DNA sequence: ATGGTAGCCCTGCTA
């Protein structure tokens, strides 16, 4: 089973490339972030034509998350639950569904903008709600994958230059502690377990030729509970998808599981 | 030079 995640930075602008990539990479499950669509505009038919069922959660032209699957999509659910105050309640940033026996969660963690700021505080609060939601609804022995754009580089080796990010979001101790909390609960950074090196980035700013200069960050993660993580046989960032005409600023991250 | 680009969809906001 092949699971992938991709922040597409507008599905409207990127549909052709996503279709091409699906035919090329043939994931069983693809989690999308930043579709920038309302549900009524989600191109479910285009994915259906390629053999994918899909669910989407989006209010408007900002954020928005989706899950595509060739192995079934059961019990779709979005958000943290009706009794939980979402610090980004106006946004669509979390969608779960059961695909091929795995509870798959597509997340688009708030960016945080600046440190300090109200947005940064709400990013950290959003992480707390995510951890509480996991703790309340799942156990570490359940097959769960939480994947998407976390907008955090978990370690220094996950950024091209630590000096360039002093005082910025994505690398602060509280943000990294939020990832650690998820790991402490039982999620494994599957990609990092496979590969130890640097330069394993999944995101490069559009500006300044950052991609071609190698100035990236690893912020798109595939976190999995041990029953899933132990099945991982292979993982890759498909950097070719960051090249060519009208690329997203993120590349897809792909993880293969043995049956 | 407090920069740069891309996508939202109209002009400034978000990333």
The CATH C-level name is Alpha Beta
How does the major sheet shape up? 6 strands, mixed
For the record, the count of structural domains works out to: 1
Instruction: Please give the order of strands in the largest beta sheet.
Output: 3-4-2-1-14-13
Overview of this protein structure:
The protein is globular. The protein is α+β, with helices and mostly antiparallel strands. The strands form 3 sheets. Strands 3-4-2-1-14-13 form a 6-stranded mixed sheet. It has a 6-stranded mixed sheet with strand order 5-6-7-8-12-9. Strands 10-11 form a two-stranded antiparallel sheet. α3 (118-137) runs parallel beside α4. It has one domain (2-257): 4-Layer Sandwich (Deoxyribonuclease I, Chain A). The chain is 25% helix and 27% strand. It binds one DNA strand of 15 nucleotides through loops.
Write a brief caption for the model.
The chain is α+β, with helices and mostly antiparallel strands and 259 residues long.
């Amino acid at each position: 089973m092949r699971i992938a995640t991709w922040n597409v930075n507008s599905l409207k602008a990127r549909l052709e490339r996503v279709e091409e990539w699906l035919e090329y990479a043939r994931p069983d499950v693809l989690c999308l972030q930043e579709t920038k669509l309302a549900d009524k505009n989600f191109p479910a038919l285009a994915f259906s034509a390629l053999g994918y069922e899909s669910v989407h959660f989006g209010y408007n032209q900002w954020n928005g998350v989706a899950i595509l699957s060739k192995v079934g999509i059961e019990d779709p659910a979005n958000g943290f639950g009706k009794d939980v105050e979402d610090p980004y309640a106006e946004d669509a940033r979390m969608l779960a569904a059961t695909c091929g026996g795995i509870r798959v969660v597509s997340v688009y963690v708030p960016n945080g903008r600046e440190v300090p700021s109200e947005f940064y505080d709400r990013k950290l609060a959003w992480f707390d709600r995510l951890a509480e939601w996991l703790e309340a609804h799942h156990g570490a022995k359940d097959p769960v994958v939480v994947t998407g754009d976390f907008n955090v580089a978990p370690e220094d080796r996950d950024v091209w230059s630590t000096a360039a990010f002093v005082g910025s979001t994505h690398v602060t101790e509280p943000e990294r502690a939020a990832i650690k909390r998820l790991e402490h609960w039982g999620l494994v950074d599957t990609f990092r377990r496979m590969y130890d090196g640097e330069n394993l980035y999944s995101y490069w700013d559009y500006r300044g030729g950052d991609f071609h200069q190698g100035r990236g960050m690893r912020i798109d993660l595939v976190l999995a509970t041990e029953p899933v993580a132990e099945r991982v046989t292979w993982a890759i960032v498909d950097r070719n998808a960051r090249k060519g005409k009208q690329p997203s600023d993120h590349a897809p991250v792909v993880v293969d599981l043995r049956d």
